[in-house]
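Our consortium's second objective concerns turning raw sequence data into structural hypotheses that experimental partners can test. To show how far this objective has progressed, the report includes one record in full. It was chosen at random from the queue rather than selected for favorable results. The single chain below, 259 residues long, was entered without modification.
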Amino acid sequence: MTEFLPKKFLALMLLVINVSLFSQNCGFLGTDIQGNSYSTLKNEIIKVSANNAGTFRISNKLLGDIHTIDVRNPMRPILFYKDVQKMIITDNTLSEQNQSVISFEELGMYQITCVASSKIDNGIWLYDQELFQIVKVDQYLQKKIETGNLMQILNLKNLEPIKMIEANGYLYMQCINNGILVFDIYGTYYKKIPIGDISNWNVQNNQIYYTTDEFAKSFNLQTLEITELVILDKKHPIWIEKSMVYFCEGSKIIQQALK
């Protein structure tokens, strides 16, 4: 069995950005590949463009709190309202696209727990907790892929996905007590990455960057090595994107750039 050990420590350089839009815990969700940042305050999403080029907002009080937002495609962010089983597809200004509010119940799915965008074909990955399967729908919301019951296929006693990300031609699915499960673009199971106790995580190139209660770390998908990233002043990291570590300090977002 492969042993996963920290390889080395990386030095970080401190940068400070004043962002008055964020609350005490920042409400920070993450950033996209263009450097735009996203935060949430209950049922409102706030996008701050890179270099403070502009601010955009979206809110739908009828749908309640936003559960997750997928911004891996900055031209097509997806908002997921888990409690009411609905999602909204927006454009780069957070304006709703043609489908407006999409109801999973109208698509014949009643317990969707995870949503992830696909840049390959503008499709959307869904996890159906009722049938224990991953489903992919195309841009017209037609089902294209169904994995079947993953509890049976993978011989698992429980399967509780809480986050999915498509990257590098694979779908990564974080599960409680099962680490991160990896599937190919056809929904076929590939492997398991045994890292747990993750607060937040992101996939870039050949690395999974993730945060825990105390540390920011990277997992090399090729060498299987874990690297602990040094956090200056022992701040609590909340997000990693493009070699930048983000964390909260009051109403400020702090960035630490890898050298």
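The partners drew two points from this record. The longest strand covers residues 96-103. The CA atoms of residues 64 and 110 lie 17 Å apart. Both points have been shared with the crystallography group to help prioritize constructs.
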